Amino acid sequence: xLEVSGITQIFGGVTALEAVSFSIAQGxxxxxxxxxxxxxxxLFNIITGIYRQTSGTVQLEGRDVSGYPPEKLARLAMVRTFxxxxxxSGMTVLENVMVGMHTKSTSGLLACAxxxxxxxxxxxxxxxxxxxxxxxxxxxxxxxxxxxNLPFGKGRLLEIARALAVEPRIMLMDEPAAGLNSxxxxxxxxxxxxxxxxxxxxxxxxxxxxxxxDICDRIVVLNLGRKLAEGTxxxxxxxxxxxxxxxxxxx
Amino acid sequence: MRRDLLFFSGxxxxxxxxxxxFKGGYLMNVLVFVGINTMLAxxxxxxxxxxxxxxxxxxxxxxxxxxxxxxxTTTANLNPWLAMPLAAIIVGCLAxxxxxxxxxxxxxxxxxxxxxxxxxxxxxxxxxxxLTGGPSGLSGIPNLKLAGISFDSDVKNYYLIWxxxxxxxxxxxxxxxxxxxRALRAVHDSEVAAQVLGVNARLLKVQIFALSAVISSLAGSxxxxxxxxxxxxxxxxxxxxxxxxxxxxxxLGSIYGSFLGAALLTLLPEFLRGANDxxxxxxxxxxxxxxxxxxxxxxxxxxxAFRKVVRxxxxxxxx
Lengths: 251, 319
Hints:
The complex is a heterodimer.
Chain A: E1 2-11, E2 14-24, E3 29-33, H1 40-47, E4 55-60, E5 63-64, H2 70-75, E6 78-81, H3 93-99, H4 109-113, H5 117-136, H6 152-164, E7 170-174, H7 182-197, E8 201-205, H8 209-215, E9 218-223, E10 226-231, H9 233-238, H10 240-247
Parallel strand pairs in A: 3-8, 3-9, 6-7, 7-8
Antiparallel strand pairs in A: 1-2, 1-4, 4-5, 9-10
Helix pairs in contact in A: 3-5, 3-6, 5-6
Chain B: H1 2-22, H2 26-50, H3 58-74, H4 80-102, H5 107-127, H6 129-132, E1 145-146, E2 149-150, H7 154-176, H8 179-189, H9 191-196, H10 201-227, H11 237-250, H12 255-271, H13 279-293, H14 298-318
Antiparallel strand pairs in B: 1-2
Helix pairs in contact in B: 1-7, 2-7, 2-10, 2-11, 2-12, 3-4, 3-5, 3-10, 4-10, 8-10, 11-12, 11-13
């Protein structure tokens, strides 16, 4: 599904990532973990086209997508969410999700402004699809709320609903549980599994180890810009290197 | 959606009945300018209020429309109805070409670049004397004619210009509530999130910049054909600032707000005749006061202030 090979990222004189390679299988939930500053978010920004890596390639479903801008990746059914949720705060919840339908609709500027018949029917289709994703994330009650007024946890759900509207085959989530209370985290775990059951491959960066160990099929561990380990949650929990990276090696 | 249409119909009806109320007279002439400025304010608002991209050079596009129309109909003897769209196409292509590099800039840098653009256009109007007549202006621009009627009086021009202004309004309202309008507002709120969802922010910004220039150009052409005389002073930096003031005072991201802003700033000078050299100071002061006390502009601030007064009164009545 996704193949990352030899990714190196150098900012000025600092090496943020060094020759990181791994691959992600279709339909898996994969966790990317590591201590602060390990390069997780940098890696996400490279995969999703926000940064351009110094060297190395990213392959999406067999196609080399290195250097593709985010909007092009969205058309290839890759989408992401952000650590500090990035909502369209001046728009309603429903409108936010409707923006997610951008790649699934085609009406141009003139067709929209002149209300051409096809743009009207497309608008109806966009609205009903957006409602469907609000139902999926249990956000229907907030449809007309201005996104900027949502409580944080609901904002997180909105961001997920909006990303799902793109109908992704792969979804990258940057710390989806950050800032959520324990109840919300449990609900999130359930939602992520439901998303996987839709056939979406999920990759998440996460600090909440309980969540990661619970839902992930595989885990990639980064430390100081390098891949430290890769395996099933059980293998990772038993890895001496990982324990050393997190707790110090006891010397 | 249906309520929007009803409101627009009511507004259009009022606009169309206004000449009956004022029975011609000097005010008609002012209301013609309110119409032109409404178009310009909406054009700038699409860019600034919806897409979140500033322009301090929009008077330049307005002037280009006016001068292209003027030159095409006088020197090249073209029919004004042909000159108008031709001017708009030229201005649209120009804005699209310039937009690609300069819309990469953000915030202050974009403000500076568009400011420079406006000033360059202004200098061209002044210096290409054999084309534009330079500082002494271009005269003898023909009025528009339709089915034997020449638009040469204030009342006729009122209907012509407000017909166009209402069309621009409806066009923009539809656009704002559509797939493209949502994408614009999305780019405004979080460009990176919009891109991740598949919005080509760069292309969209250029598109809306060009559209904004086209509407400004059409307003410029109408201005030229109603005034029959144009000179560079109408298209200088001061007017760009005036347009910006209209948009902010009326309400960013509101089409009716642009009308309110245009109406206020067009009517205000009529009441401040004695203060003609201080107008820029008054605009500046107004802008500061509005940003401090009504950051949402008149279109949101006035209803909010009204609600506050009503609530206070209720509290007092209960006490």
